[in-house]
Amino acid sequence: MSSTVKSSRRRRSDGLRTYDVIVNAAADLASREGLESLTIGSLAAHLEMSKSGLFAHFGSKEELQLATIEAARKRYVAAVLEPVMKASPGLAQLEVLCARTIDYLAKPEFPGGCFFVTAQAGVRAKAGNVRDAVLSNKNYLRRQLVRTVKAAQARKELASGVDPEQLAYQLVAVMDAASWSITGEHRDTDLKHAARAVRDILRSARSRGR
Amino acid sequence: MSSTVKSSRRRRSDGLRTYDVIVNAAADLASREGLESLTIGSLAAHLEMSKSGLFAHFGSKEELQLATIEAARKRYVAAVLEPVMKASPGLAQLEVLCARTIDYLAKPEFPGGCFFVTAQAGVRAKAGNVRDAVLSNKNYLRRQLVRTVKAAQARKELASGVDPEQLAYQLVAVMDAASWSITGEHRDTDLKHAARAVRDILRSARSRGR
DNA sequence: CCTACCGATCGGTAGG
DNA sequence: CCTACCGATCGGTAGG
């Protein structure tokens, strides 16, 4: 793309490029309805653009989906992972990681809960680049929890008998369940259930092996 | 429908009526890909029928979806709830309910995990009869867990300080997470994580308030 | 970024 | 249970 094209690109009053407006709107919609039920036509209508005008930014539906995933990843990093990196390694990071994840659901950063929880459901059955990108992002939280649990054990902040994979499974399960509830009637009570479950699970992991 | 039409209906060699073949195939497919991505054309092709021949059994896509939900409900009742009703009320029923649910995932009764877990994700955003039917079935397990926990507390089999809603939330979360894993690479380890999580959660609820 | 299209597939109908 | 259709919408293209 030439610099002439770049410099002539119109800017929105909020300073966001059209491209960013599109992918962030797509991420919001996909967090509610799933990545696979996003259609170019309905997204264009939502943004009051022509289908082909929107399409021209991406070249294929798969590229639109991959760009949407990348936009969602950046928002997840800013809302959850950057605050975690400011905490000290070990148990403090583990607690911040869970607290930030629940806040990210409660805020809500995405209107349908965690983008990657919703997206995983829709792409699970269809092999391809979109599924791979969603799953590698979705699995990041769990792998990071395992690493952080091991760091906390090395610092004697968690009992050595705790199985890091088991603990991570259980923490992810209670937080993902809250993501599914976020658009439902039990939204507020389930956010409290998730926060209390995290607290109970971590308390148990501090005091004894599991 | 006249009895003449009924008696002339051909039977399959396995004794199942075409209607039952259709709705059970639809339930299997929907457990993997979601109720909303079921199309009449792809289901007909899978069953080697014409679209309109299949369609004639239902009259609308919504009726096909509702009939599929009902077929899945019957399979869930036979696999999980009937064994539970044979156990004694209270803690025994609570343990059987969790054990049967995990076996129902592991068997697997549906190739994509629990039909209602997968279906809930796809119908969450679209109000209507289909969403209502899926959610009321999906919520049944949780309500039943709450009732059974209360019965176990009344019999002094679980600590009275346990919050039944909190316990049910946590049990459903760890079992639903295994359902999402059932088509993935962590299938077997996550089934073990779910079973162990159930055991730890129930052990904790037996010995102390949460 | 637009209008005007393309073939394929969607849910559904007519008629048998 | 079938063939032959219908209008609407899908992802995508041509051309500007």
Describe the structure.
The structure is a homodimer of 210-residue chains. In chain A, helix 6 runs parallel beside helix 9 and helix 8 crosses helix 9 (164-181). The termini of chain A are far apart. Chain A is elongated and about 60 Å long. Helix content of chain A is 71%, strand content 0%. With 210 residues, chain A is mainly alpha-helical. Chains A and B meet through helix 7, helix 9 and helix 10 of A and helix 7, helix 9 and helix 10 of B. The first copy, chain A, binds a DNA duplex (16 and 16 nucleotides) through helix 4.
SSE blueprint and pairings:
Two copies of one chain form a homodimer.
Chain A: H1 3-8, H2 18-33, H3 40-47, H4 51-55, H5 61-85, H6 91-106, H7 115-123, H8 129-154, H9 164-181, H10 187-207
The structure holds a DNA duplex (16 and 16 nucleotides).
Over the alpha carbons, how many angstroms does the gyration radius of chain A reach? Answer: 19 Å
> Uncertain regions of chain A: pLDDT < 50 for 5+ in a row?
1-13
Main interface by residue count: A-B, 35 and 35 residues
Q: In sequence order, what are the helices and strands of chain A, one letter per element?
A: HHHHHHHHHH
Percent of sequence in beta strands of chain A: under 5%
Distance between the termini of chain A: 56 Å
Please report the total strand number of chain A as a whole number: 0
Oligomer category: homodimer
Supply the helix-strand structural class of chain A: mainly alpha
Give the % helix of chain A: over 70%
Largest sheet of chain A: none
Basic shape of chain A: elongated
Number of helices of chain A: 10
Mean pLDDT rating of chain A: 93
